[in-house]
Structure formats: structure tokens, C-alpha cells
Amino acid sequence: MCRGRPGRNNHRRVAGLTIRTTILKALVTGSTGFIGSNLCRSLLTAGFEVRAFHRPDSSLMLLEDLPVEHASGDITQPETILNAMREVDFVFHTAARLGRPVVVEDLYKVNVLGTRYLLEAAMQSNVKRVIHTSTTAALGVPRRISHRQDNHLLMNENNTWNFPARWWPYGHSKYRAELEVQNAVAKGLDAVIVNPSLVIGAGDINRIGGETIIHAAKNLLFAAPAGGLNIIHIDDLVDGHLKAVEFGRRGERYILGGENMTHLAYLNLLSRVVGVRTPRFTMPDWFLKSLASPIEVLAKIIPLPIGGDLPRKSGFFFYYSTAKAKEDIQFLNQRTTYKAVQEAYNWYCDHQII
């Protein structure tokens, strides 16, 4: 639980007890999404007043039962952001463009320019701290050591972008957004960056991390791509955001991740949860990479569930270390991937998505 905003005493001692004398207010962008809505819920539980920033046409399904103050606007419209920041102590910037189909211009407009507008508004509003939700995608791709699962260097906060932007525009746009944060920090803003890995759990309404779970439930998983990934439970991710408010060091980035596992192991786990047959083999990365260009051409003609960026990342082991977050902000990735998948699957079933 957050003790108070940095540099300001929000407590007094009475009869040996610590009593909060002010109520802190948090602004959450992207509040109607998977991460943003769960963050709103946890902030309320922690005693914050919460202002939920979202577009006028956004679905409020995930906020229906929450006593939040609504602020209508658009991250690409600076005047609406500035209005939403009145009397705000902390800003949690989770809004981002992602998903399919990929419109590159929109990615940079929302993820980069929108972040710049938000940071400028935060400085004008004398916000005490901004928590910027980035992604491990902003770290680029890992070095290949070997094809053995147990012989890969874990990526950490020192990794930086090292991949052609046109091959992974989302990752590059989030890297560029981090540069905007660092530029604002250099100008005096107190900001901390958190880098989630693949987030799984209940409430993934846009099916960003959960699309594969839905495919598994439809028995559409025949083989796994080469390489590996890292999965974090949504509750661990939200806890990490709150820890970053209290313990994060200004200008630093923190990887918030969970379990590292091969794609084949992950798909087998999904199959067990939903009760279908398990994939038996891994497709070679050279084969998947050969499909990237044809997919990109075909995607210009008909809608596709994947883009060329996915096969281009085949064969990489996106394994991450959370050592810095554990040491600096007391981050705990204590919930299992199995629990995350089970809760996501149950949520999709309850809402008749599966």
C-alpha cells in the first residue's frame, strides 16, 4: 500500500497509530482496458480516490461496479488530458494502442505523441509522480545463445532496442515512448517506468494476452512456435505498479515479469486448463520466418489474426530477470502462470466469450 506521495508527509501520529490525514488522488489513463481497470480497482482498495480517463465511446464494462470519477477525453488531445489532471497526485499511464489490425501511424500517434502530451500536462499540473506502463517489447529482442532452453541470458533493464522498427512497430513505438519519459525526467518530472511481460488474467476484454487461450478452447493449437516467453499474472502486475509509486527510483525502469517458459510448454499448459489435446511439436523458426513477408502482403488485402511481426520473432527466447524490481521496489511475482490462465479462462467462459 502506498504510504504517500514522494517528498510530502501525509501522515500524523495519534496514540501510537499512523493516520493518513489526506486522501491521495490518482489518474489512470487507459482505465477501461485490462490493466487500467484492474489498477483502478486496486487503487480504490488501497484508499486512493481514482479518476478514470477514457474516450467518450469506450465501453465501461470493466468499471461498472467501481466508485471512480470519470474523465472523458483522448490521449491525443492535450486539452482533455490537462483538464483531467486537476488536483491529481499520481498518474498511471496505461493507455496504449495495440492489437490487430496494426495501423503504424496510429501506434506512433497514441503511444509516442500521446505519451508526450500526457507528460507535458503532468509537468504543468505539478503532478508528484507518473508511473508509465511500458512493455518488455521496448527492450528489443534477446541475444541468441543456443537452442537449448536452459542456456539463455535473461534480458534485464539494460537491454535496449535492437530490432528493425518496421518488423515490430508496436515494440518500437513503446521504446520511443520511453524516450519521451526520459526526456521529461531530464526536465524535472518525477517518473518511473514499468515493463510488463505478457499479462494474463481475468478481465482481458480486448483479448491481447488471452487470444491464445481462446484459440486453445476452440482446439485450434496444432503446434508451437520456436522460442519462449514470460507470463505475469495481472494481480502481480498491479501490485508492481503500486510498489513503483512508493519505492521506485526516479527515471528508472523496472521489469515486471513472472515465469519464463517455452511456447510449447505454455501451449501445453493452456490445453490442460481448457481440456483439449496438447500440441506435440515445435515448428522450426526458419519456416515461420519465411511466412512473414507473405502474411504482410496478404494482410493488405484481407484481415488476418496475426501480422508479419509474430513470425519474425519466432525462435527468440523472451526470458526476463525481475531481480532489479525485487531489490528496488520489493516486487513479488508470486502467482503462477497456471493460476493466471485458469482465471482468464473462467472469465471468458463467464462472459460467454468462449
Map the helices and strands.
Blueprint: E1 11-14, E2 17-20, E3 25-29, H1 34-45, E4 49-54, E5 69-72, H2 78-84, E6 90-93, H3 104-124, E7 129-133, H4 169-186, E8 191-196, E9 198-200, H5 211-217, E10 224-225, E11 228-233, H6 234-247, E12 253-256, E13 259-262, H7 263-274, E14 282-283, H8 285-289, H9 292-299, H10 309-312, H11 323-329, H12 337-350
Parallel strand pairs: 3-4, 3-6, 4-5, 6-7, 7-8, 8-12, 9-11, 10-14
Antiparallel strand pairs: 1-2, 11-13
Helix pairs in contact: 1-6, 3-4, 5-7, 7-12
Count of strand segments: 14
Instruction: Calculate the mean pLDDT score and round it.
Output: 87
* Strand and helix order: EEEHEEHEHEHEEHEEHEEHEHHHHH
The main pleated sheet reads as: 7 strands, parallel
- Gyration radius (Cα, Å) is 20 Å
Q: Brief description of this entry?
A:
The chain is of the alpha/beta class.
